[in-house]
Amino acid sequence: MFRPPFLARVAAGAAVYAIEETRRLPTAAMNLPITAISQVLQTTMHVQQFVTSLALKGDAVFERLGNAPQEQPEWATFDEDLPDEPAPSGATARTSRFDLYADEPESSAFDTLPADAATRASERNGHTGPAQLVDEPESAEREPQLEIVRAADPAPEISEPEVATRYDYANMTVAQLRARLRMLSLEDLTALLDYEQRTLARAPFVTMLTNRIATVQAQ
Question: Where is this region: Disordered (predicted)?
Answer without folding.
Answer: 119-143
